[in-house]
Amino acid sequence: MFPLPHPMRLALDLAASAAEAGEVPVGAAVTRGSVVIATSANAMVSDSDPTAHAEIVAIRRAASALGTSRLDDCDLWVTLEPCAMCAGAIALARIARLYYAADDPKGGAVAHGPRLFTQPTCHHRPDVYPGIGGEEAAGQLRAFFASRR
In the predicted model, is pLDDT for residue 1 greater than 60? Predict the structure, then answer.
């Protein structure tokens, strides 16, 4: 087994911290080249904000840090396949590449569900690289939800 790329390791660590705080364990990092521009974990519970998914918060932070709404030279690393809301934000932000860990057959919108980036109304399609750190991310999610049952 090879070591995970630094941004995905960072996202998985953020997801673990989110779980400890009672949030669904999802973490994200936005990079430009080898530089991490912004990070986040799910904050829906702590922020009382249903849109505070890790991807959305990381994209907002990256756009603010760079002073632009166009992140076309940036990559997004996230521990779970993005939902429709997050996939839409990825397209609108013009993220160049999306790396995600675990598939989400129930709520995902990239490889599952609406497959947003394949829709003719989607005007930007990032390159997509699934499965990086997928076993660890899926394990975090299973453990989190098992502890809630």
Answer: no
Dihedral, CA of residue 75, residue 40, residue 109 and residue 149, to nearest 10: 150
Provide the mean pLDDT of the chain: 97
Q: Give the separation between CA 140 and CA 24, rounded to whole angstroms.
A: 9
**Tokens (6 digits) for 13:** 């660590």
Strands, sheet with 27-32, edge to edge from the N-terminal-most edge strand: 35-41, 27-32, 75-80, 97-102, 127-130
Beta-bridge partners for 98: 76, 128
pTM beyond 0.85: the answer is yes
Bridge partners for 139 per DSSP = none
Catalytic residue (choose from 20, 23, 55, 136): 55
On whether the CB atoms of residues 4 and 132 are closer than 8 A, the answer is: yes
20 is catalytic: no
